[in-house]
Design goal:
- The structure holds 2 protein chains of 2 kinds.
- By secondary structure, chain A is of the alpha/beta class.
- Chain A has 2 domains: 8-45 and 160-354, no CATH class; 53-142, D-Maltodextrin-Binding Protein, domain 2 (3-Layer(aba) Sandwich).
- Chain A has helices at 8-21, 24-44, 63-71, 83-92, 126-142, 163-193, 196-201, 207-237, 245-267, 273-290, 305-310, 312-324, 334-354, and strands at residues 53-58, 76-81, 97-102, 116-120.
- In chain A, strands 2-1-3-4 form a 4-stranded mixed β-sheet.
- Chain B is of the alpha/beta class.
- In chain B, helix 4 packs across helix 5 (127-133) and helix 4 packs parallel to helix 6 (149-161).
- Classes of the chains: A alpha/beta, B alpha/beta.
Chain lengths: 358, 323
């Protein structure tokens, strides 16, 4: 007979996968949205052939001369602007530095320039500081400074160190968090509001099977989720996986389960979809910011780093980067793997304990 | 019905023992006495109906019986088993429930839903068989959200029958359905009854209780007001027939009470409801009395007494808007 009775865990997992696949919105958020995000960020932060410094020269008698001196360097793009426009563009970050001429000092001290120079810039911007040094260098060289030290440039290309290389693992981590938490949490709360949980509780179904079904379906789902970003990263941006693919799979599975567990915990007692979505955001928002998906968390103050590293998304991002960017083996990231495992076990056990079936 | 014939030879051999036994069951929610001291046995093979308005405590009582809600007090025994006294999960193999307002997973098909439910039970029917029982053959591959209300209810029922239970709980299985869809659900329940299963049914439809139930308890404010077969309950009114009418013109209502065979007279919507032993006796007398006083009868209706009349005489309320 064709309708064989299968193991309930198998049926729960398969049902869960079918439900997910049949939800077009879900497919958009899990598959299309991260691609759009990766492409947008990848383009916004793509490596320019060496950052060009845009320097505004304030309109005045000597402006043309200064502009010419600056042009000697290929990494400087000078532009002559009036005072107001120059300041406006500095504020917007379109130029990194404004060079003005203070003609009250008269000629003489500054070569053949009509006065001393005034550099206007924002000290907290690294590009501004670079612009400052480069401009000074260009102008002084142009006016006859002699270098005393001989330097030979030895340029190497470091792969895996571009922003997009950093970004792709971060996006994978973020995606696993989002789909794990929403995928599980929302489905559970929905089933509760629809009294489906109560109905299931009235059957001999094992409670742990219900939750494991979510976990397993997540495990299967994450394969296309991760693969898509990895493949796309390689096709569009040539982001390489330096470590073993198997290690990447292990890290992804663990990460995905960790967030499924967290989603389960959020949904364990929540009665409404609004409540669940509030909790989800409450938990995910800090991790979006702190866990280094888009930029390195090392920029946060020293004392906060241990806390940040204990967050599940930080552990996942670090582990993904270790495998993808640095090609490190699994044993070298035991700490990150342990952090995730502890989260997984804790959330699963607590969820099972406090779960509300009605 | 074909299904029934196969079932009758089945294994249900339990003797006249109680399928459900409640002793002093009580459940309060803060100050609401949802279930307020229920003592009752339901015999194996019976269909026992809980009839009452919304908020009467039917659902709470049923959920206590189903082991989904803990009673504050009292003893509940199903098929000789008490909740919490052994392996509750395993015991659930023997009973089945259909809850009020459960919405099954939208995106699964009828067949997938049934296969999922079947997998939870260690014994039971094949999916094909319950599809036939629930008359769901045509909807087999249809996703749940596309089903009509009636089909959804039959699917919910099929999910309950998938384990081939000994005891079936149905909580308002036909609320909100049109008469035709309702009748199809009844067919399925009757099939289960004929196969020897015990049913606990809550409803606020008279017709449903009268058609399906061997015994009915009228419930309000957490208590049973009366218990009996539908015909016993109607007979307990002491009057099997009802005359409803309005009178135009001058008329003293006390005259009605004196007419032959009249048990009670109630005013209702500017008219009267008289419970009488026999319409044949009372109606000519009523007509004569009206004529004598130069009044005129208006909107005359005569009918058999129903459970609703029983309910109204007990609670002074109406069972449901539609009832």
């Amino acid at each position: 007979m064709k309708d064989k009775i299968r193991n309930p865990l198998y049926e729960l997992t398969v049902s869960r996968i079918k439900e997910s696949v049949r939800e077009p919105e879900m497919l958009f958020w899990v598959f299309v949205f991260p691609i759009l995000l990766a492409v947008a960020l990848g383009i916004a932060f793509r490596e320019k052939p060496a950052d060009t410094l845009r320097i505004a020269v304030e309109e005045s008698a000597g402006a043309g001369r200064i502009s010419k001196l600056l042009s000697a360097r290929s990494d400087i793009e000078p532009i002559i602007l009036d005072y107001r426009e120059a300041n406006e563009q500095l504020r917007k970050g379109k130029v990194d530095l404004i060079i003005g001429i203070d003609d009250s000092t008269g000629t003489g001290q500054t070569g053949d320039l009509p006065g001393s120079l005034v550099f206007t810039y924002d000290e907290t911007r690294s590009n501004s500081k670079m612009a400052h040094m480069a401009s000074r260098d260009a102008i002084e060289l142009g006016l006859g400074r002699k270098d005393t030290v001989s330097i030979r440039d030895n340029r190497v290309e470091t792969s895996g160190s571009r922003y997009i290389d950093f970004l792709i693992p971060g996006l994978i981590g973020m995606n696993l968090m989002g789909s794990g938490m929403w995928g599980v949490g929302f489905a559970v709360v929905l089933a509760r509001t629809r009294k489906l949980l109560k109905r299931l509780a009235a059957t001999p179904m094992r409670r742990s099977h219900y939750m494991l079904g979510f976990m397993l379906s997540r495990m299967i789902f994450l394969i296309p989720e991760v693969a898509m970003l990895v493949v796309l990263g390689w096709l569009i941006f040539r982001v390489e996986v330096f470590g073993s693919v198997l290690d990447l799979v292990v890290v992804s599975i663990l990460g995905s389960l960790t967030f499924a567990g967290l989603g389960l915990l959020v949904a364990a007692r929540t009665r409404t979809l609004e409540g669940a979505s509030g909790w989800m955001n409450f938990i995910m928002m800090p991790m979006y910011v702190l866990s280094g998906s888009f930029f390195s968390y090392e920029r946060f103050p020293e004392f906060s780093l241990p806390i940040i590293r204990a967050l599940p998304l930080t552990a996942l991002n670090d582990a993904l980067r270790a495998v993808m960017n640095d090609g490190r083996p699994l044993y070298s990231i035991w700490l990150e793997l342990s952090v995730m495992t502890i989260w997984l076990i804790l959330t699963f056990m607590v969820s099972l304990k406090i779960f509300r079936w009605q | 019905m074909e299904i029934v014939k196969e079932e009758i030879s089945g294994r249900r051999t339990t003797s006249g023992a109680a399928a459900v036994r409640c002793i002093g069951v009580r459940k309060y929610f803060q100050s609401v006495h949802a279930v307020d001291g229920i003592d009752r046995e339901v015999r194996t093979g019976d269909c026992f109906g809980l009839l009452g308005p919304n908020g009467a405590g039917k659902t709470t009582l049923v959920e206590v019986l189903e082991g989904l809600t803990r009673a504050d007090r009292g003893i509940v025994e199903l098929l000789g088993y008490r909740w919490g006294s052994g392996n509750d999960r395993k015991f659930r193999d023997r009973i089945a429930v259909q809850l009020q307002e459960t919405q099954l997973a939208d995106k699964l098909t009828v067949e997938e839903t049934l296969r999922l439910f079947r997998s939870f039970f260690s014994r039971g029917r094949s999916v094909d068989e319950v599809i036939r029982l629930g008359e769901l053959e045509e909807k087999r591959k249809e996703r749940v959200y596309r089903l009509s209300g009636g089909t959804k209810q039959r699917l919910a029922l099929a999910c309950a029958l998938v384990s081939d239970p000994e005891l079936l709980f149905l909580d308002e299985p036909t609320t909100g359905l049109d008469p035709q869809a309702r009748a199809r659900v009844w067919d399925v329940v009757e099939g289960f009854k004929l196969s020897g299963g015990t049913v606990m049914l809550t409803t606020h439809y008279m017709e449903e209780a009268a058609r399906l139930c061997d015994r009915v308890a009228i419930m309000d404010h957490g208590k049973f007001l009366a218990i009996g077969t539908p015909s016993e309950l109607v007979a307990s009114l002491g009057a099997r027939e009802i005359i409803e009418f309005r009178i135009l013109g001058e008329f003293d209502a006390w005259v009605l009470q004196g007419l032959p065979g009249v048990k009670t007279v109630e005013g209702k919507n500017e008219g009267y409801v008289m419970k009488v032993v026999s319409i044949d006796n009372t109606l000519p007398a009523l007509l004569a009395a009206v004529e004598k006083r130069n009044a005129r009868l208006h909107h005359l209706v005569t009918r058999q007494a129903t459970l609703e009349d029983v309910f109204m005489s007990m609670t002074g309320g109406k069972l449901s808007d539609e009832g």
